[in-house]
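Bench notes, afternoon.
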Amino acid sequence: MKTMENLSTIRKEAVEKIKACKDNGALNQLRILYLGKKGPIQEVMKTMKDLSKEERPAFGAKINEIKQELSALIEDRRTLLAEKEMAEQMEQEKLDITLSGFVPNVGNLHPLTIVQQELEDLFVGLGYSVAEGPEVECDLYNFERANIPKDHPARDMQDTFFINVEELLRTHTTAVQMRQLEKYHEEGKELIKVICPGKVYRRDDDDATHSHQFMQCEGLVIGKDIQLSDLKGTLDFMAKKMFGESRVIRFRPSYFQFTEPSVEVDVSCHICGGKGCSVCKGTGWIEILGAGMVHPNVLEMAGYDPNVVSGFAFGVGIERVAMLKYGIDDIRNFYTNDLRFLKMFNRFE
């Protein structure tokens, strides 16, 4: 039967082409050709009408058999080609696990951040809260409320970056203390325990011990019966935690506009243990901060009665603590972004 011979020829041709196919794109074209509506098998099917009733069932069964066979061959070939493609890709992209691994460059905290966080943790453990404020500050909080009026000679001690007549880059975080005093009074609270860390700015020539930008951490405690002995106990605790349990502090009389009485605070030299060396200039002591009892005028301007409450305040330079703590001899190292310097502190985090 000629139609059956045609089917056998088509089948043989299709099988050879499918087995010889090299990629899935060509294989898909063969699927469309032989199993689609316009292929040779479909053309042969059109001759079914010319067959007798007895021949048609066998002819239809043969067509279905060939279609199923070709479909199975195409799927098997597709799977084989996919596996081959994956094997080639893995061969091209394989990793040599004997090579040295890549170590990512992981950063670390800046030494000033480390010291600031140590101070914050220390005082938070004593029940203090941490307060922040704007770096562009108004004259009212930076000077006036701190008992430094416009004609006060102490203004000459702080060469200031003014934005305009009433706004400036804050010269100390005392401004944050003044804002906290006002805030707590408005809330009707008499007990205040707060530290105020942050950057401050003063026009200064940059050298090994001075910078136009530096960081402070100031503290403020207000309440009933707060005394100078409370201040000394607090700062002694801070010195021991930051510089070592063998460190001791001493007070020297001084003058600050927002405290009365005022003191300079020295810590015993960590190099010579108080015996005298080149670091402490033979005195056995190193100055670390200024402090004192909050001036009555400051309390009154914030709305507090100095006859009812009292308090103390202190301010420490974070760079100074870091320089003493880690033996750094040039403040400019903190701001030059030298990775060799900064990477030295990854062990202190």
